[in-house]
Amino acid sequence: MNTYKRLPLTFACGEGAWLWDLQGNKYLDALSGIAVTNIGHAHPRLTAAITRQAKLLLHCSNIYRVAAQEELAEKLTELSGMKRVFFCNSGAEANEAAIKLARLHAHKRGLHDPIIVVMESAFHGRTLATLAATGNTKAQAGFGPMPSGFLRIAYGDIDTLRALRRKRNIAAVMLEPVQGEGGVRVPPTGYLQQVRDICTRKNWLMILDEIQCGMGRSGRWFAHQHEGITPDVMTLAKGLGGGFPIGACLAQGEAAELFAPGSHGSTFGGNPIACRAAQAVVETIINDDLCARAAALGERLMSSLREGLSGTQGVVEVRGKGLMIGIELDRPCTELVAMAMEKHLLINVTAERVIRLLPPLILKDSEADQIASTVIELVRQFLATPTESAS
Ligand code: PLP
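# pyridoxal-5'-phosphate complex -> structure
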């Protein structure tokens, strides 16, 4: 169906940070399929894990034990400090599971009209509940009535959350540690700790959507770890499978014990190949020290961009965390995507005026420098040319 505004480009294959189109032209990938191919294209370890498992067992119903799931859950809980994992197939599904946990948590406390506090500019998915949690009225348009039970407040502003402390029926607070689709927004330092503190005191679940910023991208395994906190519930997808579809909802404490047999499930969730793919991704991030690499590369890219764009009229800010980088302009700039494509560079623009860079964590220094110099040149050229959207 007509759901995507597609670019006129078809890729045949990829390797590392590079993609080749059907005519054999080469493109530098600074988007990673929107934070998915974090260990690059056609990584030999990932390819081998998928093919090995495909020869053994493609699917196994969740009415049996699934070894690959148990091993992956073991690894993810160890890395995150969470206790249990529910596996599914996408980010929206992981967030659906988190929302259901918040509601179970509320009903257990005797709250039968629970509210989940969500954020302005948030993005949590396209299913009805996750769309209701998403702070984008354009994405919601035409799909009403939205499921109820969500209350939206300003992101990054602790006072608005604090002001809700006396509200009787709050079950949870759901947010992204760094907002992705909303414009690569990094909240003020200490904000996540303060949210954690309020949630703990009020017995609200702290739900963190790490679907875009998790799996090493921010320079730590999970972006909230920069603030030394642990959420009650965390969702993952995108980079978890390195390109193979898989999602996960992780929980600790009381939240980890809320689901019981029959209360939630998925036919394909925790598929053996998906779990072997995710294990290979985790092993690669560990073996190649890719969290540290993402932090170092992020610094390198952001400082080159800041230096190259300093004093350029029209550039509002260069910001980000690790390899999740946004360059905010003072005007809509979606044309930059096609301009970059002509220079064989793949980028994205989100929230209309924020250039978003999400390159793979296996990027070489020289590739990072190439991304920076091309983006700087394009932004300067774009801002120097009066456009219709700028007027
Ligand atoms: N949450 C965040 C933060 C996302 O960035 C996305 C996708 O962009 C989603 C949830 C939804 O994930 P999916 O498209 O896999 O359903």
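# post-check
Residues 34, 90-92, 95, 123-125, 176, 180-181, 209, 211-212, 237 surround pyridoxal-5'-phosphate (CB under 6 Å).
The two ends are 34 Å apart (CA to CA).
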